Amino acid sequence: MSEDASHRTQYDHRLVRMFSLAVGIVFVLVGIAGFIPGITEGVGEMTFAGPDSDAFLFGVFAVSILHNLVHLLFGVAGVAAAARATASRGYLIGGGGVYLLLWIYGVGTHDDSAANFVPLNSADDWLHLGLGLGMIGLGVLATAVERRRNVYPEPPEEREARS
């Protein structure tokens, strides 16, 4: 593939890649913030996992060490996915689906239950619904824009570059 064609492909898919990068960075920042006193209330009461963690990000969202690590890893995955349009689209739509499943899990799990190992509270549940819908929406929006520009699915040059 010529350097010019490679640049055009990268440019044409910049929206989905930018969305993946932005979402990934936000998750990394939230994961870090979950360990910072002042941003997270009760950092000293944070447990590795489970409903006994008494730490709350921004004083609202229940967090644990596991919860913060998941945010960090999910964020790193988004940043890494931003290198390729296909990976970015998968991250946004697939990750949004994961967050919708997490919303269903959270709504169906009592806050004090041992099954609430992440932990989650009702604020987390509604945030997960919004994140799931938002991430899927960004993936679909970027795909729609690319289709209008006739660059989705990826041109053969990009598919060959991945092989």
Automatic annotation (TrEMBL):
Pfam families reported in the protein's UniProt record: DUF4383 (PF14325)
Keywords: Membrane, Transmembrane, Transmembrane helix
Organism: Saccharomonospora cyanea NA-134
Origin: domain of life: Bacteria
Spans through the membrane: 15-36, 56-83, 90-106, 126-145
Protein's name according to its UniProt entry: DUF4383 domain-containing protein
